[in-house]
Amino acid sequence: MFPDLSKVKDKEAIRRSLERHLLQSTGMEPEAAQAQHWLGATIGLARELVSERWAEARRKKERQGAKEACYFSMEFLVGRLLTDTLRNLGAYDVCAEMLTRVGYNIEDIAELEVDPGLGNGGLGRLAACLLDSTAAIGIPAYGYGLRYEFGMFAQRIKEGWQSEEPEQWLRFGGRWEFARSDLTYPVRYHGRLAESGRDGATAPGQWIECATVLATAFDIPAAGYSSDTVNTLRLWSARATHELDLERFNAGDHLGAVLDKAQWESLTRVLYPHDGTAAGRELRFKQQYFLVSASLQDIIARLKRQGCSLDMLPSRIAVQINDTHPAMAVAELMRLLVDENGLTWDHAWDITRRVISYTNHTLMPEALERWPLRFFEIILPRHLQIIYRINDSFLKEVAARYPGDIDLLRRVSFIDEDGERHVRMANLAFVGSHRINGVSKIHTELMKRTVFADLDRLLPGRIINITNGVASRRWLAGANPDLRNLISSKIGNGWMRDLSELKQLLPFVEDAAFRADFRSAKAANKQRLANHIEAETGLSVSVTSIFDAQIKRIHEYKRQLLKLLHAVALYNRIRNNPGGDHTARTVIFAGKAAPGYAMAKLIIKLINDVARVVNHDPLIGDRLKILFLPNYSVSLAERIVPAVDLSEQISTAGTEASGTGNMKMAMNGALTVGTLDGANIEIRDAVGAENFFAFGLTTDEVAYLEKGHYDALSYLRRDNDLQQALEMIGNGFFSPSNRDLFQPIVQSLTRGGDRFFVLADFTYYVGIQAEIEACYADQEEWTRRAIINTANMGMFSSDRAVVDYAREIWQTRPLAD
């Protein structure tokens, strides 16, 4: 374990360092400084401390010739960094004491830090967790992403509707960033391929007359917990090659003089630009290439600086592409090796396949990216040529093994010929990788049976499973200090390095005093969340009610509608029998809808309109509250997760690859109600079926119904609660000023075919919720099950996931001491 900072530097030295950083960053003396100034000073101190360890980790890595993991992801949802970094450095307590001396609480100071706008949901949070765990374990790694100037968007709720505003996370500057102007690479677009010979054949590598934008690096350190390893999150910012067209400016065309700069620098303005327009889709396409080109150029340049040949690339670098967004890495690495470095095609292809691996996160065909062929023709013509050649070679191999099977060739080709021609990025990623991993056991098996059935048969053994994990030091130790302290008082602190040690809590399940303390920790977290809810929304909620949370991206397959229909059914039951014995429940929603996803935004509106009616009905009182907390983020999740009693993981079976929110809430003692989908199955197996509320169609049953055997209306006719809830939504009960407002939702569930089987699972879901209420009424039994959940969460650590990646895919090892 790395020594506590207080043993390395005396407290007086820390005080002087804090004051020095305060003066340097604000020009203010301590007596005049405000909380925001002390935040900047504390971050400055943390940067100073982490830099020393960061530099030594780089030197050690180069001395040992260690292999690096390079994780390519469009999202890195890192959250606030101050308290995590100070804890990992062993400096938290001494900094807290120094701030107390000047009249400030460190947690209040940390609350002022702004979440970096670098992600949206589980994909980005997973990337951040894995980067954290590589540093804790000691595996050298780089996270490669984009520096989005305005994030995805800041979500505001106006009259129940989601509205989007720029996410101003850089308004105080990138306090954790180290600008690396020395690391700038040209990224090329458009242009044409030179022709040679009378037949007009294209000469490889002759991609000419291109437009060029510069990628400049900004580094954020990722310090490992109780480790001397500090890894790097390297973010690319787009910069035009020409800041100003002086001739146009002097001619009076002041806007036109900066048009080129504005156009190219928009590449890194926002995450996931709205793809409802051709311009938005083209911008996404360019963003993805910008990420992989800059990152691969950087990797090759670093390798050369270390005196290594490109033949050593597979022994020194492992590139993991997170979903299909960075799949262009396959074609770009080939281009760099062949065109820029003179390798033969076969040599480059051997290196590429040994370096790259691909994590799949979805089974839904529409989510497996397909880019129009014309985008490649116009924007990346050389890459289209490379993709054609890889595809041609692959299809020839397939045809030799399965002569005459034209349909097989059509299915596995990189080029989708149906309608407008597209490039199937998942097929490119699969063929260009040596390993393809799913992120839960069932997801991996379904990959083999569905979207990649043909490719798995042709290239057997490439698909493996690595179940996702989460950073327990943030999501349990950091977010839930009451529970952290209770656990450590019983089993010590070793669980923060090895989460499997939580199993030592199992003997305390039957300890009445421990159960009482466990409930007290949950009650304190619920009170803190209730205070936040009242401060943010004005709504008072009962802390003795079930805190029932569904917090995740708003999407039809995640089935926020199922939870909301249940809430309406509960509302009706209380209205119909106000004197009855009803279990109090607080239903919490949070999550963002993609700006162009009209149905998801309508669902947010419906949640808010139902909440407005229910929360103001005097017959209901505290027995049912519904709320939507806006602008979901890591920091908001850190408030919600420790307080949750019931974790809603209710996606249609076969649609959620894994999930990570399910892990976070179970780790904090929530019980899960969930379908047999994604990592829910492994959580149920880990905690015991009796401590998990499973319901709903299985993947096999869903597959059967999808083959034309589903009649949504038949389920509607069987359930009076469901009929009443849908009728109220459809007839304007919750939207009296626009009674047809929610008809599209009703139609999607009834006449529209109910694609995600909400109606089919409703009755089963309501039944399991009745079991949940009966269990919650027995608080001793509920607490037993909650403790068992926490105690069995060891395998869902991102540390375990990184060890699996390192062993099964990357072939990397921790740095030697």
From TrEMBL:
It is an enzyme of class 2 (transferase). Its EC number is 2.4.1.1. Transmembrane segments: none annotated. Signal peptide: none annotated. The keyword Glycosyltransferase applies. Coiled coil: none annotated. One of its GO terms (molecular function) is 1,4-alpha-oligoglucan phosphorylase activity. PROSITE patterns: PHOSPHORYLASE. The keyword Glycosyltransferase applies. Its cofactor is pyridoxal 5'-phosphate. It holds the Pfam family Phosphorylase. Keywords: Carbohydrate metabolism, Glycosyltransferase, Pyridoxal phosphate, Transferase. InterPro entries: Glycg_phsphrylas (IPR011833), Glyco_trans_35 (IPR000811), Pyridoxal_P_attach_site (IPR035090). Belongs to the glycogen phosphorylase family. NCBIfam families: P_ylase. This is Alpha-1,4 glucan phosphorylase. It comes from Dongia soli.
